[in-house]
Specification:
Blueprint (H helix, E strand, L loop, with lengths): L11 H12 L2 E2 L11 H10 L14 H15 L9 E5 H13 L5 E6 L3 H9 L3 E8 L9 E2 L1 H7 L4 E7 L11 H13 L3 E5 L25 E6 L11 E5 L2 H12 L9 H9 L3 H24 L4 E2 L6 E5 L9 H12 L1 E2 L1 E2 L9 H4 L2 E5 L4 H11 L4
Parallel strand pairs: 1-12, 3-4, 3-6, 6-7, 7-8
Antiparallel strand pairs: 2-9, 4-5, 8-9, 10-11, 11-14, 13-14
Helix pairs in contact: 2-9, 3-9, 4-5, 4-8, 10-13
The protein binds 4'-deoxy-4'-aminopyridoxal-5'-phosphate and glutamine.
EC number: 2.6.1.-
GO molecular function, one term: pyridoxal phosphate binding
Keywords: Aminotransferase, Pyridoxal phosphate, Transferase
Amino acid sequence: LASRLRGFGTTVFAEMSALAVETGSLNLGQGFPDYPGPPEVLDIARAAIGTGADQYPPGPGIPELRTAVAEHQQRFQELGYDPGTEVLVTAGATEALAAAMLALLEPGDEVVLFEPIYDSYSASVAMAGGVVQPVPLHPPADGEGAWTFDEAELRAAVTPRTRVLLVNSPHNPTGTVLAAAELAVLAELATAHDLTVLTDEVYEHLVFDGARHVSLATLPGMRERTLVVSSAGKTFNVTGWKIGWVCGPAPLVAAVRTAKQFLTYVNGGPFQPAVADGLRLPDGYFAGIARDLQYRRDVLVAGLREAGLPVVSPQATYFATVDVRGVQPDGDGLAFCRELPRRAGLVAIPTVVFYTQEHAALGRHLVRFAFCKSDAVLAEAVERLRRLA
Ligand code: PMP
Ligand code: GLN
């Protein structure tokens, strides 16, 4: 393994999903729904197989999907993008982020991001020869509300080598949605230091309790320096389709396209028309998936609390983060997760894997549970959680 990839072994998601299969446990680890997406969207993909859609789509994605992405950005964020030059279809958000890093970073350039961080970020930055500068998000002091960053810690992370600010809101794994005042701080900082901003918005529609996701690109001065990344996986329950996209000013999107051309060239032929259709579903669809998931959140959060696991009820995403110190005397979340199949027939993700070495202590006692599961699985999971008491 080349030195730039040392330390990046098997992803924790693969490891924990394998453990679930091996032990016959319920998998509340890896974030994927166990229920299907909207039937009309699935039907379009089925019908597209066996047609010209099986062959290479156009490099930037089929025009119909690029137009649908631009219309979706206009409808939900009032952001206007030219489908011809300002939208690129990618192999999931993962490729969009990796291609953006390859396109933007010179060796040694720094990327400021918030920790805990989604696991592909560090690897993508490393593969592009960059360096991460993590800024910790702190849990709410009273156990309710959102995780937040300390402005002084954020400012201290920016150096003359900082090239990119990478922001994930709604945030995996904490379920936090950045507030307007926090977005304003980020916008001011990006402008002052002339940073390119990458926003990972894959959970944009999975927001609860009437809260709304606001893209950082909508703030004054941000559109021209921001690449907005999202994907179909979470919005349409099709995490295996790997259809993602990037929107931004033409020169930045062209740079990402240059990298994407030589990573995968194109992807997901038959899925592209299906996702285009999904993005045009009425507002009620998008409100409906959030409402449905909010109900699942409430079921799991209640079960976790009953089992003696303090949990911050998340504002968004698929995930709830608990403190295991009450049920794991050494407070080690990784050890807790390794034993959880035996103790309770469940699998979860130790939050420590979302931290760099430097800040690992902040996540040692935390564990992430996914609630994007069917009623029967959630009910059984809540039942099994009682075994921890
Ligand atoms: N970003 C975040 C924050 C995620 O949680 C995930 C995983 N679902 C991704 C990116 C990857 O998205 P995709 O499957 O579209 O590559
Ligand atoms: N994003 C999902 C999660 O955080 C899984 C993605 C993956 O397996 N790479 O659980």
